[in-house]
Amino acid sequence: MMRKAFSLMELMIVIIILGLLAALVMxxxxxxxxxxKQKLVCVQMKTIAEAIKMFxxxxxxxxxxxxGIGALITNPNPARYPNYPNGGYLDGKNEPKDPWGGxxxxxxxxxxxxxxxxxxxxxxxxxxxxxxxxxxxxQ
Length: 139
What we know:
Blueprint: H1 8-29, H2 32-59, E1 105-109, E2 112-117, E3 133-134, H3 135-138
Antiparallel strand pairs: 1-2, 2-3
């Protein structure tokens, strides 16, 4: 009775082929996770920006910088914002976080607003994966 099995040569050829495939595919996959996170930041910022614009339509003003993004979840001042809808403008009970777990920074400027994610390093400045991402640059 003869058993069928792979020879050492056949196994070596399969291992070499798998190694070559991995060598060709891996460089294309490395770094894609960070690129995806940077794109996700822009998607999240657009959602927050739409909520800020709806807040302005309903209340007549953008949230103050003191109220920040939290003003989109609960009414920070019922006397100042009587037209604030029940349930707020964003789902959830907490302010949204960027993909690296950092808070979005909300700023007012010249009749408008901007949002900032500090990137992977959660510090101002930086380059590459650590660069700051601005809503005004996402558009």
